[in-house]
Write a structure and sequence with these properties.
The protein is mostly beta strands. 0% of the residues lie in helices and 49% in strands. The chain is built from no helices and 16 strands. It has a four-stranded antiparallel sheet, with no helix packed on it. Strand 7 and strand 8 (81-83) form a beta hairpin.
C-alpha cells in the first residue's frame, strides 16, 4: 500500500531590499548590486520549488554644494577634514543622509587676504599744502572697502572710502582695507604712513 501526499505549490515570496550606492547583497549565491527585480527558484524544506522575487533598490548618493569664504590663516572644518587653501574639494560624510547612507559635499572654498599698502608720500612744503596718500597698490576687488584715519593727536577718520586720500597736515595716518560685505568674513589689514613737512624755504 502506498500513500501519496500532494503538496500545494508555495506562493511566491516577495522580498524588498534597499541598499546605499556602492553596496551589494548576496542572495542564493548571486551578488546583486543594481536596481531591479530578481527571481530565484529555491527548494522548500519539503523539496518543492518555491519562487522568491527580490526587489532591489539602490539609493543615489546625496550630493550637495557649499560655497564658503574664509580669511587667510583661518581653517574651516567639513566633516572630519580641515581646509585652509582655496580650491574645490569633495568630502564624503559617513552615514550622514536621512537614509543612513553616505553623502557627498562639494566644497568651493575662497580664501581672501586683504593687504594694505601705501606709497611713501611727498612731504608737505611751503608751496605744497596738500599731499595724496596713495593706497592703490593694496589688494583691490569689488568687495574691498577702504578706511583712512589720522593717528596723530586725537584719531580722526578721514571722510573718504577710496584708495586715495588727500591730507594737509603732517602726522601719522592709517589705511585699513577690509571685506565688510555680507557673505564675507571680517578680514582686514592695516598699514601706517608718515607725512612729513619740509620747512626749507624755496629757492
Amino acid at each position: 500500500c502506498m500513500t501519496i501526499i500532494l503538496l500545494s505549490t508555495p506562493a511566491p515570496i516577495d522580498t524588498i531590499v534597499t541598499l546605499c550606492a556602492d553596496e551589494t547583497t548576496i542572495f542564493a549565491d548571486s551578488m546583486l548590486k543594481q536596481t531591479g527585480v530578481y527571481e530565484f527558484d529555491l527548494l522548500t524544506s519539503e523539496g518543492c520549488d518555491s519562487l522568491v522575487r527580490v526587489q532591489l533598490s539602490i539609493l543615489d548618493t546625496l550630493i550637495s554644494t557649499l560655497d564658503t569664504t574664509i580669511c587667510s590663516g583661518q581653517k574651516i572644518q567639513i566633516g572630519n577634514q580641515l581646509f585652509d587653501q582655496q580650491g574645490t574639494y569633495r568630502v564624503t560624510l559617513q552615514n550622514a543622509s536621512q537614509t543612513g547612507c553616505d553623502s557627498t559635499i562639494v566644497v568651493s572654498l575662497t580664501v581672501v587676504d586683504p593687504i594694505a599698502i601705501v606709497s611713501t608720500p611727498d612731504p608737505l612744503t611751503c608751496v605744497r599744502d596738500t599731499v595724496l596718500l596713495n593706497g592703490i597698490a593694496s589688494q583691490t576687488d569689488s568687495f574691498i572697502a577702504f578706511s583712512w584715519k589720522s593717528l596723530s593727536g586725537t584719531p580722526d577718520p578721514i571722510p573718504t572710502h577710496t584708495p586715495v586720500a588727500s591730507v594737509s597736515e603732517a602726522g601719522l595716518y592709517q589705511l585699513t582695507v577690509s571685506y565688510p560685505n555680507p557673505g564675507f568674513p571680517q578680514c582686514a589689514d592695516s598699514t601706517q604712513v608718515l607725512v612729513s613737512i619740509d620747512t626749507t624755504p624755496p629757492h
